[in-house]
Amino acid sequence: GRMIMDLLMHFVRGEAVTFVPFGAELTTQQAADMLNVSRPFLIKLLESGKLSYHKAGSHRRIYAVDLLAYRDKRDKEQTEALIELQRLGQEIEAKL
After folding, report:
1. Rounded to whole angstroms, how far apart are CA atoms 70 and 45?
2. pLDDT tens digit string along 30-65?
3. CA 25 to CA 60: how far, in whole Å?
4. Ramachandran sector of residue 57 (left: φ over 0; alpha: ψ -120 to 50; beta: rest)
5. Which residues of 15-52 are buried (b: 16+ CB within 10 A; e: fewer)?
6. Do 75 and 37 form a contact (C-beta atoms < 8 A)?
7. Is the pLDDT of residue 27 over 90?
8. For the residues 56-83, what does the mean pLDDT come to?
9. Is 60 exposed, middle or buried, given 0-12, 13-18 or 19+ CB atoms closer than 10 A?
10. How many CA atoms does the CB half-sphere of 43 hold within 13 Å?
11. CA atoms of 63 and 15, how far apart (whole Å)
12. Other beta carbons less than 10 A from residue 7's beta carbon
């Protein structure tokens, strides 16, 4: 029920929705698109070890499950950082 409502809300907002099988292997471009980053930025994430990948011949492939775990972790860290900035801003404002 909730998943359908979330899906419909994305459609109503005109946002793109992509279905990815849990065990899917993604190309670097597909992974970059899902993270909303450039392909060169994604390659840097892979080479730094921040996101795991494997080689299929000479091509890098990212498991969808690994990409989604990275995205969730990244989003959580960003949210926590924004909350902390807001808290610090309120502290500074209170001292003025």
Report:
1. 10
2. 999 999 999 999 999 999 999 999 999 999 999 999
3. 10
4. left
5. eeeeeeeeeebbebebbbbbbeeeeeebbebeeeeebe
6. no
7. yes
8. 94
9. middle
10. 6
11. 23
12. 12
Which amino acid is located at 42 in the chain?
Answer: L
Give the whole-angstrom CA distance, residue 92 versus residue 84.
Answer: 12
The tokens for 8 are 């419909």
pLDDT value at 72 more than 80: yes
User: What count of Cα atoms within 13 Å lies in the side-chain half-sphere of residue 86?
Assistant: 6
User: Collapsing DSSP states into helix, strand and coil, what is residue 94?
Assistant: helix
The predicted pLDDT at position 6 comes to 81
Q: Which residue has the higher pLDDT, 65 or 1?
A: 65
Residue 2, pLDDT score: 80
Confidence of residue 71 (pLDDT cuts 50, 70, 90): very high
- Residue 63's DSSP bridge partners are 25
